[in-house]
Amino acid sequence: LEIAKATLAEAASKGSEEKESGRDDTKKDGEPKLDVYNVHDILMQVEELTERKRHISAQEIRAKVGLEEEVFWQYRHEISKLYRTFEKYDDDEDQNLTHTEAKLLLKHLGFQPYRKGTEAQYVQRILE
Question: What is the pLDDT of residue 81?
């Protein structure tokens, strides 16, 4: 979003330069006109920055957790979301889930660890 704002500001300054040169690329209210190429450039810059931040975040998580390289590359696209979900349920922030925290996480993922039946028994066996 900040890049988009900066790009718009840059387009506005270019618009004022072009206005001085006799070419006016601003709307009547003074805002810059954006053609499809300007919008495309802005979106590409935002996408590139977002991807770069996602990569840096994933690398930081890898270092913090100590993931093996093979596991990291297999799950690199989901690693940030997985880690944020893990952190959400790690109430005591010890990088480990208690049985209660694990059950809450499983419930969030769509399992029913509290209901009696085979699913709850399976969860209980895993947690033992």
Answer: 87
